[in-house]
Specification:
- By secondary structure, the chain is α/β, with parallel strands linked by helices.
- The protein has 2 domains: 2-211, no CATH class; 216-413, no CATH class.
- The chain contains 16 helices and 17 strands.
- It has a 7-stranded parallel beta sheet.
- α1 crosses α7, α10 packs parallel to α16 (406-413) and α12 runs parallel beside α16.
- It is elongated, with a radius of gyration of 28 Å.
């Protein structure tokens, strides 16, 4: 029962997020905006006009008075306190046996009936009227009804598909891009706004929203993961990364691996083996074309950890460029391209002065403005991404959370 309750709660949040995305896409003007968690769940601002929406996804069959009393009471209370402001109020709620996209007509008599209920006090049932108890007149109730609409919402999956279709149409993209890239980015942007403290911080215009999700970056949030098993989550991310061609050997890429992954149980795939897998996938001498670029790996390791790793790579004869960070880091040396020889008469690399670039996150932090970032930045860490200024001109940023260990990571990039 607790699990079903939790799933229903998550679904309710998702439904609100999807409705918010839909309203943002459908805004008439680029300067129009939405406040997430404003007066109600969604506030739409267009010029001097405000329309507020309370969004519900309920498993009940029908819209009974008891189920809609609280949201209507809340909107009525706000209306009474702000009657001079021209605000429109909307209840958008899904019920299993109500017809989606239809409006329920509510007149004065029905509104009073909805606001009336019985409450047990001192072991006795007492008749209560919300409007009477709060001194709300018939004139106020009638005026509220001129600004209020109750619309039945679509079924969860139907609305979600509608959101993806809207994104596909706007960006003229494929089904995969609409669902896996633009929808997930939309979800991340809306969630990030929803948890801000002030109305100003929770406000976003249509232009800013479209620009934020159309950023050439794949953004991930915990909400994306909540409906998936870990295996499904990893498989889905792998598909997204492949779809962007971020792993092309000809692209200059940085792979950042955070402490939470490096400190995990990596007995099945130690970090030295991961480095070998990365080399085999992205810069294997003898098979890779001459336009390939050695990947850069940044590891959130201390001095002891990085030294141990480098010793292991030296034992295995792996040539790496670390800019001499253990002695005196030189960014110019680190940025130098490898010296390569072609393999016979082919277009493949036969020899290379180094096959991977490797430094700690501390070195990267200290010299980040001097280090060439390149085309792709793949960030594996549960910590917040803090290098936005470095990636403004980067064609792709993949900020990837919730990898359990290096084995997960290898499935994504190797």
């Amino acid at each position: 029962m607790a699990k079903r309750s939790a799933e229903a709660t998550i679904k309710g949040y998702y439904y609100q997020f999807d409705t918010t995305i839909l309203k943002l896409i459908e805004l008439a003007n680029d300067s129009d905006s939405v406040i997430i968690e404003g007066i109600e769940d969604i506030d739409i601002i267009s010029g001097s006009n405000t329309e507020t929406i309370q969004c519900k996804y309920l498993s009940a069959n029908k819209a009974t008075n008891s189920l809609i009393r609280e949201p209507i009471s809340l909107m009525l209370t706000h209306f009474v306190a702000n009657s001079t402001k021209l605000i429109k109020y909307n209840l958008y709620a899904h019920f299993e046996n109500e017809t989606p996209n239809t409006e329920k007509a509510i007149d004065l008599a029905l509104l009073k009936d909805i606001l009336s209920y019985r409450e047990k006090t001192n072991n006795a049932w007492v008749n209560k009227e919300f409007h009477t108890d709060n001194n709300i007149s018939d004139a106020q109730l009638s005026e509220f009804l001129t600004r209020f609409k109750f619309r039945f919402g679509e079924e969860f999956e139907t609305q979600q598909k509608k959101v993806v279709q809207k994104l596909k149409t706007h960006f003229n993209c494929t089904e995969y891009e609409g669902e896996k890239l633009y929808y997930n980015n939309s979800l991340k942007i809306v969630l990030d706004k929803a948890i801000k403290k002030t109305d100003a911080e929770r406000t976003i215009t249509k232009t800013d929203f479209i620009n934020a999700i159309n950023c050439g970056k794949i953004l991930f949030s915990i909400w994306f993961k909540k409906y998936k098993t870990h295996k499904e989550y990893i498989a889905d991310i792998a598909g997204r990364i492949r779809s962007t061609k971020a792993l092309s050997p000809s692209k200059s890429k940085i792979i950042f691996i955070g402490k939470n992954i490096l400190d995990a149980d990596n007995s099945e795939l130690p970090v030295s083996e991961l480095v070998k897998n990365i080399i085999d996938r992205h810069y294997k001498v003898g098979t890779v074309l001459y336009n390939a670029i050695p990947p850069t790996v940044i590891l959130e390791l201390d001095l002891t950890g990085i030294t141990t790793l480098k010793k292991e790579l030296i034992k295995q004869g792996i040539k790496f460029n670390d800019g001499h960070e253990n002695i005196e880091f030189n960014a110019n040396l680190f940025n130098e391209k490898p010296i390569i020889n072609k393999k016979g008469q082919t277009t493949k690399i036969g020899k290379s002065s180094y096959i991977i670039k490797l430094i700690t996150n501390q070195t990267f932090e200290d010299f980040k403005t001097q280090i060439t970032v390149g085309n792709v930045f793949i960030y594996f860490s549960d910590s917040d991404f803090t290098y936005q200024s470095l990636t403004n001109n980067t064609s792709q940023l993949h900020d990837i959370k919730y990898c359990n260990n290096l084995k997960d990571l290898s499935k994504l990039i190797c």
